[in-house]
């Protein structure tokens, strides 16, 4: 993937371009992106995804706004889809004051555009007044095709980043995954913990993630860990470890990786979250906690032995994009 910005630019011909934040890179986005790739192939053109370094809602603050995908996760997903060209717009307060018509003229002057593709609810420019109708004003003068694609649904619910955030934050991860088209991603750097898991006989890795990342609700989740191109079954725990009586209300993200015995402190890993196994429980003693973890591991293995997601994911990230 070639990533462009105001300082690094490829002057491509016959450009098909789409514009958006693409937080989550969900099924609705996938539909737009695949259409862009298809049109570019038909006209022997180049498809560019124009997106933002910082989500607009972080610059024009929404209360407690969290991201489905960090910038690194978003680029990872776009590359997996087959996007070759990405233009990253620095989004700050000054850029947010650009009116809709000025933004369209900027695009026309910047790129040799053949086609602009937007989603059904795409809005742009200051105060989000720009729309499909704004783009149509420039269609004939600049001989540009304008295409608006309708929404995608799942179980009679319109797929949107906002709705997926609600499902993720409530722990309804399997429903969220069906809207995303792939298992929810949590990526970060492995940091040192208290080694409590090792003393219990179930060593874990602790993850430091971007503070803007949306985490699923507290609980234990069946997951897959990706490390250096290898995939491992994992139990993910998100919570404050109440059984250990640690005077700490901070949420920890830790994973017990099955059949794994490497020291990976400082390494970057990715977790794919597939299913919520149970809530976080305060047990009366450590032995009861250990017995529960043993049961969790059995259930985790049964889950994968049944659906083979750990094998399928190695060949196709978009397990649920049907």
Which keywords apply here?
14 strands; alpha/beta; 11 helices; elongated; 2 domains; 6-stranded parallel sheet; 26% strand; 6-stranded antiparallel beta barrel; single chain
Describe this structure in words.
This protein is α/β, with parallel strands linked by helices and 322 residues long. It has 2 domains: 150 residues, HUPs (Rossmann fold, 3-Layer(aba) Sandwich), CATH 3.40.50; 145 residues, Beta Barrel (Elongation Factor Tu (Ef-tu), domain 3). Helices cover 32% and strands 26% of the residues. The protein is built from 11 helices and 14 strands. The strands form 3 sheets. It has a 6-stranded parallel beta sheet. The protein has a 6-stranded antiparallel β-barrel with strand order 9-10-13-12-11-14. Strands 7-8 form a two-stranded antiparallel sheet. A hairpin with a 2-residue loop joins strand 7 and strand 8. Helix 7 runs antiparallel to helix 8. The chain is elongated and about 75 Å long.
């Amino acid at each position: 993937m070639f990533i462009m910005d105001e300082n690094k630019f490829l002057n491509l011909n016959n450009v098909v371009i789409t514009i958006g934040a693409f937080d989550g890179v969900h099924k609705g986005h996938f539909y737009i992106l695949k259409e862009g790739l298809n049109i570019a192939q038909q006209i022997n053109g180049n498809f560019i995804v124009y997106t933002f370094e910082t989500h607009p809602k972080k610059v024009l603050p929404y209360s407690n706004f969290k991201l489905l995908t960090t910038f690194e996760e978003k680029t990872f997903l776009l590359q997996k889809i087959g996007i070759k060209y990405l233009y990253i717009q620095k989004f700050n307060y000054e850029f947010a004051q650009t009116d809709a018509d000025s933004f369209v003229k900027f695009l026309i002057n910047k790129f040799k555009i053949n086609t602009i593709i937007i989603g059904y609810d795409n809005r742009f420019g200051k105060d989000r007044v720009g729309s499909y109708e704004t783009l149509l004003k420039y269609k004939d003068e600049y001989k540009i095709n304008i295409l608006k694609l309708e929404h995608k649904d799942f179980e009679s619910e319109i797929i949107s980043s906002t709705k997926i955030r609600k499902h993720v934050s409530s722990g309804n991860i399997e429903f969220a995954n069906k809207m995303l088209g792939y298992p929810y991603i949590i990526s970060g750097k492995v940091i040192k913990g208290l080694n409590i898991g090792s003393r219990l006989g179930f060593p874990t890795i602790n993850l430091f993630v971007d503070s803007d990342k949306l985490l699923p609700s507290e609980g234990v989740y069946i997951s897959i860990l990706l490390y250096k191109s290898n995939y491992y079954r994992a139990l993910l725990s998100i919570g404050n470890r109440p059984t250990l009586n640690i005077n700490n209300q901070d949420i920890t993200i830790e994973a017990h990786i099955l059949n794994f015995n490497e020291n990976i402190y400082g390494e970057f890993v990715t977790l794919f979250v597939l299913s919520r196994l149970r809530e976080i429980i305060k047990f009366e003693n450590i032995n009861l906690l250990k017995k529960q973890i043993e049961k969790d591991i059995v259930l985790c293995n049964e889950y994968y032995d049944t659906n083979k997601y750990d094998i399928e994911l190695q060949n196709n990230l978009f397990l649920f994009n049907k």
